[in-house]
Amino acid sequence: MEEIHTKMADEEYEEPVVYASLSSRPEERNVFKEQDPFLKGWDILKGLNGLDQNFRRRTNRNFEKAQQDINVADATNSMRPYAQDTMKPYLDSASANPKGQGAESKQLNPGLVYRNGYGIFDVITPPYNLYELANFYDTSFANHAAIDAKVENIVGLGYSFVPTDRTMLSFEQQEDQEKVGRARKRIERAKIELRDWLESLNDDDSFQKTMEKVFIDVQATGNGYLEIGRTVRGEIGYVGHIPSTTMRVRRLKDGFVQIIAQKLVYFKNFGAKNPNPLTADPRPNEIIHIKQYSPLNTFYGVPDIVAAMPSLVGDQLASQYNIDYFENKAVPRYVITLKGAKLSPDAEDKMFRFLQTGLKAQSHRTLYIPLPADNDHTKVEFKMEPIENGIQEGSFREYRKQNRDDIFIAHQVPISKVGVSDAGALAGALAQDRTFKEQVARPAQDYLEKAINKIIKEKTDILLLKFNELTLTDEISQSQILERYVKNQIMLPNEAREILNLPQADHGDSPLQLTAQAANDAKQNSKKNRARDRERSNNQSDGVATVAGRNPKGQGRKSQ
Fold it and tell me: What are the domain boundaries of the chain?
């Protein structure tokens, strides 16, 4: 019971109102804010392991000088800008993307507050709380299901290697088929070697698993980080995932900073040659930053779920409401009306304590409170009127369903992809899958492939990584389509084998040459297929759209 109060029976009788609420909860700690190590002051951050000694001494001097300036300003009542001269290097708006040779971005960067790790290490504050966004992935079933569906259909279907456009052009220009055949075999060997190399870069996870972790972070927090480590000879020797909640982007976009367990690590951009400004590591690892674009922030990405944040929070509150209902049995089912009586302070306290603690995890308890009349001539009237919950509960269920749909819409994931049985949605599942593939999956794959192929290009320039696409047809139908294309010389045999992930054939780069008998059979089969299709069309049951053009009982079309 959330609220019990006395109600005036008429305008002449004035009765005090007594409130007893269960919604009053103590203020909760901001766990997410406490988890952010960049919000701590220099007194704590200067003890981080990994900091360059010169950087630590320089920052100590800056803080000492800043404190002296504050003391002088306080003494003279001259409240000039806080440590303006000392903080100038941190407040300058330098180029966000220097390229050298006169080519650089001239956009302005936001200023910094020199009071915590964000200002000290020259990193930008994320537009949203990354820990809280990551928590929504774990606690919201709809958000979790939508993200998993995108991950499974975008990076979870595996990957393959395809020749570059330049390689395919060289094949087309080569007239010697024997040379083409030998080149095809070299490419097949290169695919095997490239896959073995890529899978050897991480002892803990496969490359596909690594990309799944990165893409979960992208969808949950808007940002994903792929770490690349190099050997002493400068060759790529490690590729792994870094949790996005721990990473921060430098203001000048010259690297990234991570703080975990009293240790600070600096990462530079992939392929960058700039010096390490924070730590003593002479060979910092590199980062490929994958992010969801937002016009409001160029440093961090913003996840799709932000657009449906009210629905996500509302659904969580609704779920908590259900838990409280079954745990406390304190749903307002009745309105209590009193006339001619006043609750004593002791009675008020007893009722309040009963509602707060007496109903906790206990059902069907009874509370007895005597209600004496105000005087001997006043008659006490007590009414308990039930409240119908049917309409409210129906609206409540509809509210949760709408929240779920809003979350799926924000992610652009059809309901059929998350295993929800909905007759109306299943009817158009194929069309929804096609839209999902064309508007969500394929663009995301293109973006990821462009980022990953930066790594592949350092190993070879004849192959590119390509994620396997969502298949809208079954295996038998797909093979029949490819067979028809090859026989009709619409597609080369090796092109069909490439789609099926089969090794290239020696003479597969030339159109398939059918014997006279095979060509005649193919022609006859084509005629039979067309005749069969016409027969099926003429004999199909009449519907609203076709009844006007047919004879009775579906006996063919009307003659013109």
Answer: 32-124, 308-397
